[in-house]
């Protein structure tokens, strides 16, 4: 499974969520079958994960992964640790899997079948120790999840998915920004540039004008934009044009020629070529498949 496939497949299930507060924290070596995400709210901990000794402080997050041995060696000061156990994907046996406190060698064959693949580490490259600037946002969402878990109702399965996905999104964005210091520094500049593209998507937008909007040099603007959105400014504009064209095809009575002109193309040929390249289907085919009742004939 590649990155995009995994992002589409994520369907979290929260096994347990609680705000753990203790005066002293120590836990013998063990493995777990699922994931555990822990936020250090207060106190300092020495934790061994896969043989590496880590010292963690308030603001740090830890992602304990399936099958990886870990141990809470010692703590300093009272420890407040909101955390959750969860599956990243849907599994038929989700209700059977317990929270484990044994070593791998102590688990029986049935228990070892409960071990989940580490998709978050192997594909999304989320490390064991997470140090990000947006940790307060993650903490806030984690507390929302714990609050909802303690009061869970019949609709909680929907809420838990949205909150865990939001937490994972914040973690991934935080790690991305941590790997590129300029991303967080220039977040406002990127927002201004994207807003400009969305407001003028149907016109020719020069890269020089966007860099001026962002108050950055052409080189740094192009580089930071690509790191932030994973596409170039031109590709972002094309993608936005195509989404707008799809909306018009589904919900308006405009012909394809009129739609092409409205999203910034001088000819239906240029629009059709761009749409097919971006969406993998011709606009005529898309319109005939998705057009709402009452839409105009295709011209």
TrEMBL record:
UniProtKB keywords: DNA-binding, Transcription, Transcription regulation
Record-linked Pfam families: AraC_binding (PF02311), HTH_18 (PF12833)
Database matches in InterPro entries: AraC-bd (IPR003313), Homeodomain-like_sf (IPR009057), HTH-like (IPR037923), HTH_AraC (IPR018060), HTH_AraC-typ_CS (IPR018062), RmlC-like_jellyroll (IPR014710)
GO molecular function per UniProt: DNA-binding transcription factor activity; sequence-specific DNA binding
Domain HTH araC/xylS-type residues, every copy: 191-289
PROSITE patterns reported in the protein's UniProt record: HTH_ARAC_FAMILY_1 (PS00041), HTH_ARAC_FAMILY_2 (PS01124)
Stated name of the protein: AraC-like DNA-binding protein
Species in which this protein is naturally found: Paenibacillus rhizosphaerae
């Amino acid at each position: 499974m590649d990155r995009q496939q995994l992002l589409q497949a994520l369907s979290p299930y929260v096994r347990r969520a609680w705000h753990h507060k203790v005066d002293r924290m120590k836990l013998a070596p063990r493995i777990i079958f699922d994931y555990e995400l822990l936020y250090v709210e207060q106190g300092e901990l020495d934790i061994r994960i896969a043989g590496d000794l880590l010292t963690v402080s308030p603001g740090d997050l830890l992602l304990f992964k399936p099958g990886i041995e870990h141990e809470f060696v010692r703590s300093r000061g009272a420890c407040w640790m909101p955390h959750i156990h969860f599956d990243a994907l849907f599994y038929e046996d989700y209700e059977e899997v317990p929270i484990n406190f044994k070593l791998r060698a102590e688990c029986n064959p049935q228990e070892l079948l409960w071990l989940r693949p580490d998709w978050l580490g192997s594909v999304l490259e989320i490390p064991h120790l997470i140090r990000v600037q947006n940790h307060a946002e993650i903490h806030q969402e984690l507390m929302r999840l714990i609050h909802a878990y303690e009061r869970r109702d019949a609709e909680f399965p929907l809420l838990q998915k949205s909150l865990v996905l939001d937490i994972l999104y914040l973690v991934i964005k935080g790690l991305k920004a941590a790997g590129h210091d300029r991303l967080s520094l220039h977040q406002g500049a990127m927002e201004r540039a994207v807003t400009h593209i969305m407001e003028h998507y149907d016109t020719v937008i020069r890269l020089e004008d966007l860099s001026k909007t962002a108050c950055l040099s052409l080189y740094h603007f192009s580089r930071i934009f690509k790191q932030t959105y994973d596409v170039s400014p031109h590709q972002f504009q094309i993608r936005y044009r195509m989404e707008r064209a799809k909306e018009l095809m589904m919900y308006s009575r405009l012909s394809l020629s009129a739609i092409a002109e409205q999203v910034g193309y001088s000819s239906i040929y240029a629009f059709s070529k761009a749409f097919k390249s971006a969406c993998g289907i011709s606009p005529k085919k898309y319109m005939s498949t998705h057009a709402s009742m009452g839409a105009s004939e295709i011209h």
